[in-house]
Amino acid sequence: MTHSCFPYSLQISSACYHLDSVALDLMKVSSQTELSEVQIWMSLIEKASSLKTLHLYRGLDNSDFEVSKAYLESFKHLKTLENLTIDLTCSFSEPSNQTLSKMSFTHLSSLANLKSLDLTLSCWTDHPGFRNIKVLQSLSKLEQLCLDLSDCSNIDSTFLRNLALILPSLYELKRFKLFLPTSGIPHEGRIALFSSFKQLYQLKDLYLNLKKARLDHTIMRILCNNLAHLNLTSLKIIQEGQPQKPKSLLQRLPAFWEYEQRLTSLFSALYGFNSLESLSLDLSVFEISTKEFKHFSLALKELNC
Amino acid sequence: MRSLSLELPRFDSGNDFEGLRRFLWGLKGLQKLNSLCLAFKGINLRNKEVELVTLNLRDCSRYLEDLELRFEHAEKLGNEVLEYIGVGLQSLLSLKTLSVLIGKGKVFQKEEVFGLLNRLGILKRLESLAFFLEFPVSRSEMEATMMQMRSYQNLKRLTPSISRSEVRFE
């Protein structure tokens, strides 16, 4: 949708009174879109008394920041909403704590019937803040959560610890999809976050995209130990990166003294997933020993039960 | 478990095929699999291991419907590898979708490719077939072969896209 076709969109929006599902792709809307037009649009959406699903691909631009805020504020009226997708990929770069810190998701707390939330905050130069992430606590019916923090900078330990505190309060969470930033995630924060997974008692489906974040065997062990107690039916762990060149014997020597390899804990955790129906692992950036391969084989046999 | 997708890790030492063979033998146990994707991204496989992959899948013949195999490094593969693949896969009678990729750098003879396709003629339930291989062939020969395959299989998706470097059915 472009700016010039807004009158048409207003006509379309009048049909929203009767719709139960609306998808808005406004990624290419001119940054000069006037706030008043968006407010009219959203006021019509608000009156959609039976709206259950809304997909909003908005993006976040510095020049129409107020418009984005207006969109978020209008959500408080969508009481019947059950499924919400918001893409707020940031398209501008500026020092943190300037514009993004003013962005508020607190209006989402009114969506008490929400069962599925897909929140893309990719490329943010600042983390969404505790105030915003705390909104999740009010969404007690949430069964499905996708949180995309890829390419965010400034994701600090405090933010991840807060997220770790909030996740277990989502008692109904069955599907969780998390995209972590490519780099710069503090060790302590990841430990706190992964440790919280063990309290997601209803979780059936976990998708974890670790991007290019470096995983040492401690982190891997913590992640896997906390997954082992869950009754997962689907597990997908992705770590991106290019395979390294083969190491020389001298370069491999330190590994001989490592008590535990990174994949060992993952394979051990597999033994516990008796209900697993689907398993997807991208292990191409890891190195594996003969012993670990054997371990993997045995674990897979267990999963066939 | 019904669905398994693995991008396999690299060896931590240069030529450690022992562990991989153990893993491949383990595939025998996965008899209830419905869908399997195995990608060898960082491992330079030899004919022997490719043969093990397909042979150990034989026990999955009852339920396996979707199979994707990606051998991304082909430097150590001999020309007979297509025969091994054909022999192994022809016992997977439940297959509906099959995709096999053999990485660039390996050029096959057209007779080897046609031999593989002939072997797969026994897979009567096949609906979608994709091969990512490199071999020289004329368009008319390829189309004739595909027409022949269509005549005795249930293929719904078999569209030719032929270039010099890659032949792909999808």
Walk me through what this model shows:
The complex is a heterodimer of chains A (305) and B (170). Chain A has ten helices and ten strands. With 305 residues, chain A is of the alpha/beta class. In chain A, strands 1-2-3-4-5-6-7-8-9 form a nine-stranded parallel beta sheet, with no helix packed on it. In chain A, helix 5 runs parallel beside helix 6 and helix 9 packs parallel to helix 10. Chain A is globular, with a radius of gyration of 22 Å. The model of chain A is unreliable at 1-5 (pLDDT under 50). By secondary structure, chain B is of the alpha/beta class. Chain B is built from five helices and eight strands; from the N terminus they run ββαβαβαβαβαββ. In chain B, the strands form two sheets. Chain B has a five-stranded parallel beta sheet, with no helix packed on it. In chain B, strand 7 (160-162) and strand 8 form a beta hairpin. In chain B, helix 2 (47-56) packs parallel to helix 3 (81-89). The relative contact order of chain B is 0.12. Residues 159-170 of chain B have low confidence and may be disordered. Classes of the chains: A alpha/beta (305), B alpha/beta (170). Chains A and B meet through strand 9, strand 10 and helix 10 of A and strand 1, strand 2 and helix 1 of B.
